[in-house]
Write a structure and sequence with these properties.
Elements (H helix, E strand, L loop, with lengths): L7 H15 L9 E5 L2 H7 L10 E2 L11 E5 L12 H4 E6 L5 E7 L10 H15 L5 E5 L2 H6 L7 H9 L5 H4 L5 E3 L7 H11 L4 E4 L3 E6 L2 H23 L9 H11 L11
Parallel strand pairs: 7-8
Antiparallel strand pairs: 1-3, 1-6, 2-5, 3-4, 4-5, 6-9, 8-9
Length: 274
């Protein structure tokens, strides 16, 4: 392998960054992406990794991720530049034995740090790894405009927000059957928002950061990006419906129940109105 960017997980990571930017979710340096590498990924990238950079504090404790490797976007870096010059805008970090420090082993060649949201990403990677037996590997944060707009007009409450978006398209309850959690407005990049988000990640794969953006987790790049895309499309439809005067009809509650039965999904019964 002549270049690390030719590796499959690298190509997929870069592809998400590029597509998210194309859709307008990453103005300036907005948003971030992280991927917990598999043992096979680490082995395939081993010749490009360097052990020698200083260990830095994560800002939280993630013992469940000790000695794990992550591919992450850089702090202050622009998603539009990731496919143009990956080695300057993303990096591979290793978490130490204690789960309190990280070391950059590839990337950010012009200097810099991993995303300022690294504590949030790693805390939630730890939770999802535990809950899914290691199946979940991707966490994605973006700033989709329609979703952000809805945080100014919909109740900032899990059930109300979820139910409104479930109604916007028949597939929505199938894609996010457990619903959407809401984090009230908080200053990003610190431990407080990481803790608030992690509490929701025990229940959901989607968390809304009010007046800020969306935070999604999933097993693969396709699943996680697709989840983000589905929620944002639901928000777009909702914005259009509200701009046309509101709903005249909608999916009945019994319809949600039938969807769950036919698609063999566990719909969050607490979010139904029947």
């Amino acid at each position: 392998m002549s270049q690390i960017t030719e590796l499959k997980f690298m190509r997929e990571f870069i592809g998400v960054c590029a597509e998210g930017y194309r859709l307008g979710w990453h103005e300036r340096n907005g948003g971030n992406l992280s991927y917990r590498m598999s043992a096979e990924d680490v082995a395939s990238a081993k010749e490009f990794l360097q052990d020698g950079a200083p260990w830095q504090d994560i800002g939280t404790e993630v013992p469940g991720l000790k000695n794990e490797y992550f591919l992450v976007t850089g702090s202050g870096k622009h998603m539009r530049n990731v496919p143009l010059c990956p080695e300057e805008n993303i990096c591979i970090v290793k978490v130490d034995e204690s789960g309190t420090k990280f070391q950059i082993q590839w990337g950010l060649v012009a200097g810099g740090r991993p995303t300022s949201e690294l504590p949030t990403h790693l805390m939630n990677h730890e939770i999802k790894k535990q809950l899914t037996g290691g199946k979940y590997r991707v966490i994605y944060h973006a700033h989709p405009g329609n979703l952000i707009a809805l945080t100014f007009v919909l109740p900032l409450e899990d059930k109300a927000f979820t139910h409104e978006l479930w109604e916007m398209a028949t597939e929505n309850p199938v894609v996010f059957p457990q619903g959407i959690g809401i984090v009230p407005w908080m200053v990003p990049g610190g431990r407080d928002i990481a803790i608030a988000t992690s509490k929701l990640m025990y229940k959901y794969d989607v968390a809304v950061w009010a007046h800020h953006g969306l935070f999604c987790a999933g097993p693969t790049f396709d699943d996680t990006f697709g989840l983000m895309n589905t929620v944002e499309k639901a928000a777009e439809i909702c914005v259009k419906v509200k701009s046309m005067g509101g709903k005249c009809q909608t999916i009945p509650e019994k319809g949600f129940v039938q969807l769950a039965k036919d698609f063999n999904i566990e719909l969050n019964q607490g979010f139904l109105n029947c």
